[in-house]
Amino acid sequence: AAATRDGSPDGDRARLYRAITSVLGDSYEEGMRDLARIDRKRLSVRDAELLEATQRLAGQVRKWPDGAAPGQRTAAPAEPPPPTARIDTASAAGKTINYAQKLIEDVDKMLKEAGR
Fold first, then answer.
1. 39 neighbors 29 (Cβ within 8 angstroms)
2. What is the structure's pLDDT at 63?
3. Could you say which of 12, 36, 104, 111 is the most buried, measured as most Cβ atoms within 10 Å of its Cβ?
4. Predicted confidence (pLDDT) per residue in 15-71, tens digit
5. Where are the alpha helices (DSSP H) in the chain?
6. Is 72 left (phi over 0), alpha (psi -120 to 50) or beta?
7. What is the largest CA-CA distance in the chain?
8. How many whole angstroms separate alpha carbon 62 and alpha carbon 95?
9. Residue 116 to residue 71: CA distance in whole angstroms
10. How many CA atoms lie within 13 A of 104 on its CB side?
11. Is the separation of the CB atoms in 10 and 4 below 8 Å?
């Protein structure tokens, strides 16, 4: 329990991963509020990057397209947008997701051990 208490680095990490699972699960709004309350200065560089990426991605997932209302389809653009430089984000995203999953497993393990 001491490893995940308030104010400890492991506690901050546990709150981060708990909030991420809320955002990805059935408690989007609660998870976003919890993410906003996390002090990124107290996180490791990778965890702070994960926090920022989660907030950015979650905000985009729940955002309606410009000019559209919920349940309304938008018209396709008249012309396709110009090609942009290709960046291999899939590889970086995959690595980050794998890292996040491992950290979630580690936090779950710590929480289970703390509950014994």
1. no
2. 67
3. 12
4. 999 998 888 888 888 999 999 999 889 999 999 999 999 888 887 777 666 666 655
5. 9-24, 28-37, 45-61, 89-114
6. beta
7. 61
8. 24
9. 48
10. 14
11. yes
| DSSP 8-state secondary structure symbol assigned to residue 77 | P
- What is the CA angle 28-43-63, rounded to 5? 25
Residues 6 or more apart whose CB falls under 8 angstroms from that of 66 comprise: 74
Tokens matching residue 67: 């000019």
DSSP state letter for 71: T
| Lookup: tokens for 116 | 């014994």
- pLDDT per residue as tens digits for the range 58-112: 877 776 666 666 555 556 656 776 766 665 656 767 778 888 888 888 888 888 8
Question: For helices 9-24 and 89-114, what crossing angle results, to 10°?
Answer: 120
**Distance (Å, whole) CA 27 – CA 20:** 10
